[in-house]
């Protein structure tokens, strides 16, 4: 037992040695390759798309002929996804290679960008900004893919205005179980269009997405406001969320059960004096963003500054929100930032690829990563619950409007309702953390008519899962598209007994 405890201690507290001297150099090589890929997108992606579709269809028809008893999934390995879960199901399903990661076109006239599902935010956003455009909901982790945001879910600090990521998507291209290519939108195959988000690849293989684009501006004028007590945080968040005229972005970081910093932002081109108050937080030597935000809490001052648009979008990427501090505890020290900050962050894919079974087990025992989507009026009650059961800080709070619909996740009423995403990432500071606590939290969210993101899986049973997510239309579409025995159900892919 002592040897086991010592091994755990070393793996948890000294993993930074391996990360700094091996993973960070590998990350740099990956970034160099990404720059090369970016320079080629306009010449190749559109031309190769049709050829890639034919290849996917050929694989599906081969499976239908030779292995019809095995349900299908993409061949993308588990370590390449952003989720910490090890997706064991890929080992017994029939894997289809769906390698689609380019930009097909940018249509400035109709304000649409057409992309393949494997393209990441880190590749798409810089190209759009250079062209004078951006997407309404830009996620803050560079390695998140468009397909993952559609088939899973994604929201950001502009979601109080524009909703969940998929609401900016106006058209999907899908290959079905029999190999047919279909198009769905608000006017064509509308029921499939509504059912596709959050379906985790269980209706077909997503091959292209049309996303609305809006004009990009140079900066985000960001205001920091420290707030004391959960009551004031909740009431102030509701006020700022409803002020759509002045607030393009709204975000709250809670640093303990009584104190947090509310941030509100407006996209702007600035004026002639703006440069004097620009904070280029994306530069490698700059402090981690959540630490920068905390400085306004420590000094108890309201602050305001201009942040370049791209830097703002990826403000949490450098420190992987605050996860990197558990791997490299001294990563925010000025000496480290100036000497090695340009190597950060380590690629999540490489962190996962090099995890031993022991490290995976330790993460499962000592680590919690999850997002819960709850009515905005439950902020105080929810944070108090998470404080008692997890005691993880900071807590990320991001408002998002949920609209009525017939898909798996939507407003429970016939009108728009404001929710908040509460993100909890880190090591619980409670004495006995285990799977029972996680299930208890899921039931707590279910009772409040909330939702949880499923990237980490669920301990809900199938009936509870179907209570949280509306399966009525989804089940009809699965039958219509012949998904039974060809694709697993959503629950089969997110059930923790299968995934972990």
3D structure, described in words:
The protein has 500 residues and is an alpha+beta fold. Among the domains are: 1-43 and 325-347, no CATH class; 46-215, Uridine Diphospho-n-acetylenolpyruvylglucosamine Reductase, domain 3, CATH 3.30.465. 39% of the residues lie in helices and 20% in strands. It has 19 helices and 17 strands. An eight-stranded antiparallel β-sheet has the order 13-10-12-11-15-16-14-17, with helices on both faces. A five-stranded antiparallel β-sheet has the order 3-4-8-6-7. A two-stranded parallel ribbon has the order 1-2. A hairpin with a 2-residue loop joins β11 and β12. The longest helix has 52 residues, at 15-66. It is globular. InterPro entries: Diminuto-like (IPR040165), FAD-bd_PCMH (IPR016166), FAD-bd_PCMH-like_sf (IPR036318), FAD-bd_PCMH_sub2 (IPR016169), Oxid_FAD_bind_N (IPR006094). The chain crosses the membrane at residues 16-36.
Examine the secondary-structure arrangement and name the CATH architecture of the domain at 46-215. 2-Layer Sandwich
CATH class of the domain at 46-215: Alpha Beta
Distance between the termini: 24 Å
Number of strands: 17
The number of helices is 19
Largest sheet: 8 strands, antiparallel
CATH fold description of the domain at 46-215: Uridine Diphospho-n-acetylenolpyruvylglucosamine Reductase, domain 3
In short:
This protein is of the alpha+beta class and 500 residues long. The chain contains 19 helices and 17 strands. Among the domains are: 1-43 and 325-347, no CATH class; 46-215, Uridine Diphospho-n-acetylenolpyruvylglucosamine Reductase, domain 3 (2-Layer Sandwich), CATH 3.30.465.
């Amino acid at each position: 037992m002592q040897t086991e405890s010592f091994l755990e201690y070393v793996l948890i507290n000294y993993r930074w040695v391996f990360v700094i001297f091996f993973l960070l150099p590998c990350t740099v090589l990956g970034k160099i390759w990404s720059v090369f890929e970016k320079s080629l997108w306009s010449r190749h992606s559109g031309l190769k798309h049709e050829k890639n579709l034919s290849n996917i269809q050929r694989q599906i028809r081969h499976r239908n002929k030779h292995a019809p008893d095995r349900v299908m999934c993409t061949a993308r390995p588990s370590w390449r996804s952003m989720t910490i879960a090890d997706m064991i199901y890929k080992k017994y399903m029939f894997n289809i290679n769906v390698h689609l990661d380019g930009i097909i076109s940018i249509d400035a006239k109709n304000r649409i960008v057409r992309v393949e599902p494997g393209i990441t935010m880190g590749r798409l956003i810089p190209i759009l900004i250079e062209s004078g455009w951006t997407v309404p909901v830009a996620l803050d982790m560079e390695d998140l893919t468009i397909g993952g945001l559609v088939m899973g879910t994604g929201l950001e600090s502009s979601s109080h205005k524009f909703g969940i990521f998929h609401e900016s998507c106006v058209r999907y291209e899908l290959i079905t179980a029999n190999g047919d290519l279909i198009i769905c939108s608000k006017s064509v195959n509308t029921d499939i269009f509504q059912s596709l988000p959050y379906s985790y690849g269980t209706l077909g293989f997503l091959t292209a997405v049309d996303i609305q684009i809006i004009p990009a501006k140079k900066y985000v004028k960001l205001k920091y406001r420290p707030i004391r007590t959960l009551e004031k945080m909740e009431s102030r968040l509701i006020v700022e969320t409803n002020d759509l005229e002045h607030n393009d972005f709204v975000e709250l970081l809670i640093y303990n059960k009584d104190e947090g910093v509310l941030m509100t932002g407006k996209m702007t081109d600035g004026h002639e004096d703006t440069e004097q108050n620009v904070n280029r937080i994306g530069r490698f030597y700059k402090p981690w963003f959540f630490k920068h935000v905390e400085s306004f809490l420590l000094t108890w001052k309201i602050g305001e500054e201009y942040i370049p648009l791209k830097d703002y979008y990826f403000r949490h990427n450098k420190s992987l929100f605050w996860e990197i501090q558990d791997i490299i505890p001294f990563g925010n020290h000025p000496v480290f930032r100036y000497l090695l900050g340009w190597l950060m962050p380590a690629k999540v894919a490489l962190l996962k690829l090099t995890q031993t079974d022991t490290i995976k087990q330790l993460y499962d025992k000592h680590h919690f990563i999850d997002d819960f989507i709850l009515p905005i009026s439950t902020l105080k009650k929810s944070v108090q619950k998470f404080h008692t059961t997890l005691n993880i800080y900071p807590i990320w709070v991001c408002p998002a409007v949920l609209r009525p619909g017939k898909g798996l996740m939507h407003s429970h009423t016939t009108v728009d309702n404001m929710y908040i995403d509460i993100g909890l990432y880190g090591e619980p500071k409670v004495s006995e953390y285990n799977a029972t606590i996680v299930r208890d939290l899921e039931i707590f969210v279910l009772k409040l008519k909330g939702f949880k993101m499923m990237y980490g899986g669920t301990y809900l049973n199938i009936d509870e899962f179907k209570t949280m997510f509306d399966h009525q239309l989804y089940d009809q579409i699965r039958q219509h598209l012949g998904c039974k025995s060809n694709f697993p159900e959503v629950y089969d892919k997110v059930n923790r007994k299968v995934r972990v």
